[in-house]
Write a structure and sequence with these properties.
Layout (H helix, E strand, L loop, with lengths): L26 H16 L16 H7 L12 E8 L10 E10 L4 E6 L5 E4 L3 E4 L3 H8 L4 H13 L5 E6 H10 L3 E5 L3 E7 L13 E6 L2 E5 L1 H9 L10 H19 L8 H14 E3 L3 H11 L7 E5 L8 E5 L5 E5 L5 H8 L7 H10 L2 E6 L6 H11 L3 E7 L9 E4 L6 H11 L2 E3 L4 H9 L6 E5 L3 H12 L1
Helix pairs in contact: 1-2, 1-7, 1-9, 2-9, 3-4, 5-6, 5-8, 6-7
């Protein structure tokens, strides 16, 4: 990505009490914009109300003349950075608490969403290592309106890929648009309670407990207005599996789907005031470098994308994740690459579209094969490379790590499913060229006994794995 934005001038952002902070995805607005413009450019009646909106009369011309290539189209991958922030009326409002890399592949009509946690520390030129959510605020302080470009540059440099476009949207715009379309329906995977959700407008209330409200979500399909949808996406203090930044990143992706479904419903077409209100909200609360003709063309290329063609990833600190918890020099909680550098994450992002066939993936998903991958060599990053490939085939990677013994010449698969997941075992054997063993060495038995993770298969990679992996990748290409 070509730009000249420089954050070299130091600017400290003092830590503040956590108040209302946004957890929003602008990707939801992409679907609405595409839908609205598609309606405009396809309206057969030149006298219809659609053609009376400002600049709408130009949309047909734009659609017809949009034969120019989108940025990234020549390499068959369009990368869009999606940013969410609280906004000017909120404390810490320019910190981007939502950062998502959306990649679109024109040739296959696929999309991928990679959620980047706000606590990930990245190098910023002239400023050392900072949390990635600081970039927008630092840039806005120095040059208002430059945050999206600055964040794009840092993400591009960190993950070694070009960022073609960016969207930046604030908290209030999210709520207004959800309410304008009449709310959404979201399937809640897990019931949960959050007893310390910050209550808006009560940031300085006394006693201290009055600053929070109790959130409760039941499992199942739920009707949500804008405010409730934001709370569902933002909550991060629930006990159990829903109480983390990583859990809320997954919830945000569910909200994307829910709003996409609602905004693509045909009834919105016949409510011009609703469309007008939403367009006004977008203009007020959004910042992007996309031109109108580029939005039109994105619609035409990706209007028929299917849910099963959207790949979802969350960078996290799970046993199979690529991040580790850490504490900064000033005592703040941060996330750092588990391997010590960004090579493994860069590899994941670069190869995110290398999927197995839909039929093969479905068979593995049906068997729900849990796989532990251990590096039995001193070759750095080998387990992570195989993790990306095998996860794309449908395996549930429950843990990555180094083997207690790292003197393996040949890769080995240990089948702990007792032959119950034969299809998954066959695919695993094909992708790795590993031997299959039913005999567990004593040291591996001890490791299994000491672990809380009980996989169906343990793959230990040997010296042959690097060559085997390169051959498999070349075959895919």
């Amino acid at each position: 990505m070509e730009n000249n934005f420089n954050l070299s001038e130091p600017a400290e952002i003092k830590p503040k009490k956590r108040k209302i902070k946004t957890i929003i995805f602008f990707f939801i607005f992409i679907f609405f914009i595409f839908f609205s413009i598609r309606a405009f450019v396809s309206a057969p009646d030149q006298n219809s109300w659609l053609n009376k909106f400002p600049v709408i009369s130009q949309f047909k011309f734009l659609a017809e003349s949009a034969n120019n290539q989108l940025k990234g189209e020549e390499r068959d991958r369009i990368n869009i950075l999606l940013l969410g922030m609280g906004g000017k009326n909120h404390d810490g409002g320019y910190l981007t608490d939502t950062i998502v890399l959306a990649s679109l592949k024109p040739s296959t009509k696929q999309a991928a969403l990679v959620s980047i946690p706000r606590d990930l520390t990245v190098p910023i030129e002239g400023m050392g290592w900072r949390k990635i959510n600081n970039v927008n605020a630092l840039a806005e302080r120095k040059n208002p309106g430059s945050g999206g470009l600055a964040a794009s540059q840092v993400v591009s440099d960190t993950f070694n890929l070009p960022i073609d476009y960016y969207f930046l949207v604030d908290f209030d715009g999210f709520i207004k648009i959800i309410d304008e379309i009449g709310g959404i329906k979201v399937y809640v995977e897990n019931a949960f309670d959050d007893y310390t959700y910050p209550a808006r407008g009560k940031e300085e209330a006394f006693p201290y407990e009055a600053r929070f409200e109790h959130l409760h979500f039941e499992k199942g399909l739920q009707e949500m207005d804008g405010s409730l949808a934001l709370k569902y996406a933002r909550s991060r203090h629930a006990p159990g599996i829903e109480g983390s930044d990583f859990a809320r990143a997954r919830r945000q992706q569910k909200i994307i789907e829910a709003i996409k479904n609602k905004t693509l419903s045909s009834y919105i077409l016949f409510k011009p005031q609703m469309v007008s209100n939403i367009i006004s909200t977008i203009e007020e609360h959004m910042n992007t470098n996309l031109k109108i003709w580029e939005v039109v063309k994105l619609w035409n290329v990706f209007k028929e994308i299917k849910q099963e063609d959207i790949i979802n990833r969350v960078l996290d600190n799970s046993p199979s994740g690529l991040l580790s918890d850490s504490i900064s020099s000033d005592g703040a909680y941060i996330l750092t690459p588990q391997s010590g550098d960004f090579n493994e994450i860069q590899y994941l992002i670069e190869n995110i579209f290398n999927q197995g066939s839909a039929e093969t993936k479905m068979e593995i998903l049906e068997e729900k094969a849990a796989l532990e991958i251990l590096n039995g060599t001193w070759i750095n990053g080998l387990a992570s490379k195989y993790s990306v490939d095998l996860e794309n085939f449908g395996f549930n990677i429950v843990r990555l790590g180094n083997s207690s013994e790292q003197n393996f010449d040949k890769s080995v698969i240990y089948d702990l499913s007792n032959g119950q997941k034969i299809k998954s075992l066959q695919i695993l054997r094909q992708r790795t060229n590993a031997n299959i063993s039913s005999f567990l060495p004593d040291w591996l038995k001890a490791d299994i006994a000491a672990s809380s993770i009980q996989p169906d298969f343990i793959l230990i990679l040997g010296q042959d794995a690097d060559k085997t992996f390169s051959g498999a990748q070349n075959k895919n290409e």
